[in-house]
Amino acid sequence: MADVNRGNRPLSPHLTIYRPQLTSMTSILTRITGNAMLISALLIVWWFLAAATSPEAYAVANGFLTSWFGDLVMTFSVLGLWYHTLAGVRHLIWDNGIGLDIPTAEKMGWAVIIGSVVLTIITIILV
Asked: By the 8 A CB rule, do 50 and 61 touch?
């Protein structure tokens, strides 16, 4: 039998009271950085293909990737790479049943965020 009160009920009452948590935000950011690294990889492939094609094509690709915008994109790519790597290590630790309590999980989330920023700065300085 059809539910006649279907239109009177709220669709998602949890959305009005839900507060995003660090662990959920870092999990979502892990997925975003994974997809963003694909775009960065395509830019690097474009640069290599342009280098193999002609000096003119290489000049265009190299000009883009060494511009201020290209530097910004590549810097965020390094940040995304470090973040994604550290978040992957965190998930490997969780897969072993370690650090699943809320305080430890939040500390690990902050460690991933701070660690990725620090490692990005170290990478930029060394490279």
From this structure: yes
* Residue 5 φ then ψ, to 5°: -95, 15
DSSP string, 101-117: SHHHHHHHHHHHHHHHH
In whole angstroms, what separates CA 36 from the centre of its chain? 7
Q: What is the CATH number of the domain that holds 79?
A: 1.20.1300.10
- Measured from the Cβ of residue 5, the count of other Cβ atoms closer than 10 Å reads 6
Over residues 2-53, the pLDDT tens digits come to 666 666 666 666 666 777 889 889 999 999 999 999 999 999 999 999 999 9
pTM over 0.85: no
Domain assignment of residue 34, given as a range: 21-126
Residue 76 and residue 37 in contact, taking contact as beta carbons nearer than 8 Å: no
